[in-house]
UniProtKB/TrEMBL annotation, chains A, B:
It is an enzyme of class 2 (transferase). The keyword Magnesium applies. It is a multi-pass membrane protein. This is UDP-N-acetylglucosamine--dolichyl-phosphate N-acetylglucosaminephosphotransferase. One of its GO terms (biological process) is dolichol-linked oligosaccharide biosynthetic process. It is found in: Endoplasmic reticulum membrane. Pathway: Protein modification; protein glycosylation. Belongs to the glycosyltransferase 4 family. Its EC number is 2.7.8.15. It comes from the Eukaryota. It comes from Ephemerocybe angulata. Keywords: Endoplasmic reticulum, Glycosyltransferase, Magnesium, Membrane, Metal-binding, Transferase, Transmembrane, Transmembrane helix. GO terms for cellular component: endoplasmic reticulum membrane. The chain crosses the membrane at residues 12-31, 37-61, 73-92, 119-138, 193-211, 223-242, 277-295, 302-319, 325-345.
């Protein structure tokens, strides 16, 4: 093998500075005084390690300039899953918290040990993530047509569904207030709930991938969604501080209460809600950690991984409706792509803009009609054209995603009070 | 792509005949009267389906004669793991057994519902198997040197160890009678037990692979070991029949008691032992099912999968010593291979016999010494030569494996009574 150029020295200050910080976070639960939620420290610690490893890989690969960004996605997925696996004893072991049990916290909600039956749920989520990354890798290697990719998230969500069933997972949904006269407060969807979960996995996985096809920025989208989920989770945790955001100005009945040891913010004293959002954090923190060094495109593997991770937390932590609010730009793009997805308009392999070396300009991807489009296609394209969608699509995607999340929070904590009561989901 | 010959029609009688049989087995637990151990029927059913799918793939691929036996190993591994995942609700769901609970069995040990905390153990085993197959696939694709393969089973066993720790798994070992004066009846190995588990995974995975390098028959070895484990498991289950094998003639204190509804054979009334061996059966039955159509070599993926499956049942069902007895030919080969493994003798990429087209004979793999071997190497080779090992190695491997299992049973149920008391492991 020909020796490449010597690897550029890693940014040592960053590396050397972060290693002890990450180590301290990992072992923090073992140090007295035990914090309110010990395992979250370890989760942050493992996320920092995942970040360090990912960024080191990124630098190493850039130096060697090997054309393997796609295999790299696999390595990064492995780092993510390994950090989730190594985290298991910190979240689920009683003996780690004996220290804490000796001196129970004098006030507030304390999550010293994660409920043990959650371990099966956690493990089934890991299996789903493994299958999703694995199939994503096969997709990268063998370049599967998107029509054949559709079943991938369905297969990946099977472990999730099986364990949800074996654990007698809740299949009830809360009915919005205007419809309660018809359906009552709760409706048991039964098998339809499982269908809903499959559709959620399929959507969250593919929608990022479809939008990524346009601008090659799947990691940025996933990152913003993950950060939005984290912000949402933090509202439900017990914090030593407490404050109130006056969202009644936006039309909500109650303000957002953030933090507070006893009430744990939006959890309003419910230990279950705190645990659900911790579960979500355990998956989202390392996802952000591996996502940050990958603003450039890392292949399909990370798309599937991130999409499946969102589905996992949406399903298992029971905030799928809130999650879908964070997916507004993807939903919009999905609707926009329907003509191509369902074959009304020819769909190129990738819809990235084409670079013209003479003019130095990027030209948007164009679909060639080999035969005249049908009336339906023509109609749909006219509507899009009138709305001015196609040309502006690629602009401001990231801003849209951020703005979408802001709107999502307003809808979730402002307007939702009009159709749902109190602190549900 | 050039179109291959039309696929040969599948042996329809086999396929059509087995589908309803397999379906009946899968849904048998839902039919009244509920059997003594309902889930084992579903396990057999899923194994039959796995067998059917694997054999169909085998036939299809042979017809097209594509040179992809190695990717095929991956597909087969996926079939195996998917059958394990789909089996989850049958083994772990309470509602599936409400029917049975209504009419409890009038006599004997009944395993209507698998203990729920076992679900986490089951899932962690699946994660380990997934990682092992995945890394095995990467090995197939990228052809990793064996020295770099050694960590693969270690990584794959991490989920197993993490959950074992989180579940406060037993780290005691039973001391053989002659040493009890020194150590007592039980010794708590603590962290050393985890080291032992890692070594067991490494050994069971690599030993099959190393021996397979010689004759390309990893599937046959794995099959015989899996069948031996199944026979061993069956001794511990509750059967309607009961009989006794007079092993006291071989030196055991007690005879082997096979079956019996109350005593459940070797379990002697212990529900825990029944459950452990059921756990083992759930992994071994589909392994045999996917192994049978693969007497020819299926690449490294299946090696890793099978090796990890053995490690999983040995560890989780607590019969690792018995398992190692079934590995006697592999242990022997490992000792034999030590000079090449540790670099004393040059080791070719594959040690398969070379075919000479002129004489139509197979010649054993030969190592070329580019420089004279060291004194230690010479000494070891002389010893092997005196014992006549190298030349006879490739003969009668399968017979050796079967004979090894027979000896293992004699040792386990005959001689073990001399150093262990009663019905332990």
């Amino acid at each position: 093998m020909v020796a490449g150029p010597a690897p550029r020295p890693l940014p040592n200050a960053l590396l050397l500075g972060l290693i002890p910080v990450a180590s301290w976070f990992v072992i923090r639960p073992l140090i007295d005084p035990v914090p309110q939620v010990p395992a979250i420290y370890s989760s942050i610690g493992f996320s920092l390690f995942a970040f360090l490893i990912t960024i080191s890989l990124e630098i190493l690969l850039k130096v060697y300039s090997d054309p393997i960004p796609e295999s790299q996605g696999l390595v990064v997925a492995c780092v993510y899953i390994l950090s989730l696996i190594l985290f298991i004893p910190f979240a689920f072991t009683r003996s780690f918290n004996q220290l804490a049990n000796a001196k129970p916290s004098p006030e507030g909600i304390t999550v010293l040990e994660f409920p043990h039956h959650q371990l099966a749920v956690y493990l089934s989520s890991i299996i789903s993530l493994l299958i999703a990354s694995f199939l994503g890798f096969l997709d990268d290697v063998f370049d599967i047509r998107w029509r054949h990719k559709l079943p991938i998230p369905i297969i990946a969500s099977i472990p999730l569904l099986m364990v949800y069933f074996a654990e007698h997972g809740n299949t009830n949904i809360v009915v919005p207030i205007p419809f309660r006269g018809l359906f009552g407060t709760l409706v048991n969807l039964g098998p339809l709930y499982y269908l809903y979960m499959i559709m959620l996995s399929t959507f969250s996985t593919n929608s990022i991938n479809i939008l990524a096809g346009i601008n090659g920025s799947e990691a940025s989208q996933a990152l913003i969604i993950a950060l939005s989920v984290i912000v949402n989770d933090l509202l439900y945790l017990p914090w030593a501080v407490w404050f109130r955001i006056p969202v009644h100005l936006l039309g909500s009945k109650a303000d957002i209460e953030f933090g507070g040891l006893w009430g744990a913010g939006m959890s309003k004293g419910s230990q279950v809600l705190v645990e659900r959002h911790l579960f979500s954090l355990y998956f989202m923190l390392p996802l952000v950690a591996i996502g940050i060094p990958h603003a450039s495109f890392p292949g399909d593997t990370l798309c599937y991984l991130a999409g499946m991770a969102f589905a996992v937390v949406g399903i298992q932590a029971h905030f799928s409706k809130t999650l879908l609010l964070f997916f507004m730009p993807q939903i919009f793009n999905f609707v926009l792509s329907v003509p191509q997805l369902f074959g009304l308009v020819p769909c190129p392999r990738h819809r990235v803009p084409r670079f013209d070396p003479e003019t130095n300009l990027l030209h948007p991807s164009k679909a060639q009609f080999l035969k005249p489009p049908s009336k339906l296609s023509t109609l749909i394209l006219r509507i899009f054209s009138i709305l001015g969608l196609e040309e502006r699509l690629n602009q401001l995607l990231m801003c849209t995603q951020v703005a979408g999340s802001v709107v999502a929070f307003v809808v979730r904590y402002g307007l939702a009070g009009l159709v749902y009561d109190g602190d549900r989901r």
